[in-house]
Amino acid sequence: MTTVPVPRQPSQSPDLPGGTPAPDITPVFALKELVSRLNREHNKVQDLLSSLGFALRSFTNLNQFLELTPLIASRVTDADGGALILFRPNGQLRLERIHCQDGHNCQTIRKALETATLQLTASSPTVGTALVPSADLTAALDYQVNRHLGADVQMFGTAILSKNEERGRLYVFSYDPNYEWTETRQKLVRLVADQTAVAIATDELTVELRKKERLDRELEIGEEIQRQLLPRQCPQIEGLELAARCKNANRVGGDYYDFIPVNYDQVRAKKGTLSNCNRWSITIGDVMGKGVPAGLIMTMLRGMLRAEVLNGHQPSRILQHLNHVMYADLENSNRFVTLFYSEYNTETQVLSYSNAAHNPPLLWQAATGKITRLDTLGMLIGLDVDTQYFDAQVQLAPGDTVIYFTDGFTDAASPNGDRYDEENLVKDVEYACQTYGNPQEILEYLFGQVQQFVGAGRDANDDMTLIVMRVKPE
Fold this sequence. Notes:
11 helices, 5-stranded antiparallel beta sheet, elongated, 43% helix, disordered N terminus, alpha+beta
């Protein structure tokens, strides 16, 4: 037979409210109550911090997140309220958010904090005064906040640190004279402050990302506009075979090439087409620098050159006019333009040209297999308003090939820093002209040689443009 112990009868004690007998106040019971209370407090703190962490992971609006910061900080520490003050990039301090359990005291707290921030903003933090004992902004702010809140308020403040830079202060306060800022409470406030700093940094990264997306979109538009301004394909010019390519180092570049019908206005007046034009401008240029600024100047150059070509002047006069018109704009932008301008006459097979300090095109003569440079004296466009340009001509023959290029080719660097330079280009041009039967094959070979020199998977540091013009063999 199993015996069951008889429970001990409780001693006489006052009843709890509602008529329920009160349990014995024993050390074991008191310990259980303490453990239960601590568990409840621990669970409450965990729940609050979890809510803040969830808000941090899912927030889309920084202002909405900042509203939680003083509220959570005060509740996890059983304080009467909290306040968030942020430092602005312009040096001003702003009371961003405030939370109080007592509405009446909240007005007093708000007024005190706003007065402290206004006074500190109005005075230079680097100049010590009777009210600001330190030039350090944080120390000065803590001093002002303490002074305006008064000695009856128990306050603790900690920094909002983002990227090793203090972005503000989180304050938590209590009116309870027996309230103590234990180490645990201070750690909890710092934890909330750290999450706030993460939210601020995340918001700034989001803003920067949006700016970058807008910039990428603008660059994409600029790239598309520039692509449309450059010839989409080479024109059909009687007696010539053409190939051309422009490869920008960035999305928008400063290299320029064009094929412009010189006497198109005359042909159009006679109801003709481009195939009836017997004079064509073949032009290549390079704006110093790359990227959007160079691309904008290239666009301006294209418009001015096309308008100038229709006037029917000699190549040197065209460069002279361009230099006069663009000088002021280029001088203000500290940029210059190299430009080689040539005109080909389909009837005489004469190439007339003038050079504004651009890389001289290479002429490979089919009859001799020799390469000569097509060059004239002349300074960069935009360097000297009074510079003079000169004209020259060369008689082309069937099979002759002219290679127009920009310095992106000759300046291309290998992994060890060596330059491709013009000597290598001349050797490759000579080989290509002897080996390949059409300009497109020559162009592909030359681009391939430069890429091989630069290295597989590596991009050149400058824009590269190439025009291959061959007089059709008989």
